[in-house]
Amino acid sequence: MKLLSHLRPLCRLLRDESGLAAMELALVAGTLSTVMLNGVEIGRFYFAKMELQNATQMAAQNVWKVCDTPVKAPVTRNCSGRTNAMTTGLQSTSLGSSVTLSSGFPTEAYYCASTTDGSLINVGPVSDSNGNAATKPSTCSPNGSGADTPGDYIVIQAQYTYTPIFSGITIGSLLPTTVTSTTTMRIQ
Question: Is the predicted pLDDT of residue 1 greater than 60, yes or no?
């Protein structure tokens, strides 16, 4: 009988539903908040990635605009305004000066389009190993159509360091911190 008297308060507590709505609200609000913060973090990451892609495309467009004359091609050798044009393009988005040119870029070479899938095939450098002008290949055969002539393409790669705003409570810490984007554009 004494055991039953000790269980009565526990039974009353188990039947009590007065705080149930508050507990449900706390669980639902906590879950919704976490989902919402993750959505904001993922949205920021993909917006930064999109802005970086736009920045590399703008850099290539600026180089093409400044250096698109036969006298200035190949641009990595003959166009003195290419660095300023690239920098202006890379920093033209909302990411600003946080966008930097990746090490080893820009690169430039002669490319032909593949006859099978349309991808670009490198058919020769614009400079030899000593830094002197290389001879431009006369046709695209054996890599493409023999009737086509190789084009002078510049490749620009940029990077941006992404920092999550809700690190530790969202998946932001799982996202890559260094985001890169590469653009290839025909100059001549």
Answer: no
CA distances from 79 to 56, 101, 156, 187 (A): 18, 18, 15, 12
Two tokens, residue 89: 């393009």
Q: What is the pLDDT of residues 115-159, one digit of tens each?
A: 788 888 888 898 877 777 888 888 887 666 677 889 899 999 999
CA 94 to CA 54: how far, in whole Å? 10
Structure tokens at 63: 């180089």
Task: Give the rounded distance of the alpha carbon of 98 from its chain centre.
Answer: 13
Rounded to 10 deg, the angle between the 82-90 and 20-67 helix axes is 160
Q: Is the pTM of this model over 0.85?
A: no
Residue whose structure tokens are 């149930």 = 20
* Percent of the chain that is helix, strand, coil (3-state, to 5): 45, 20, 35
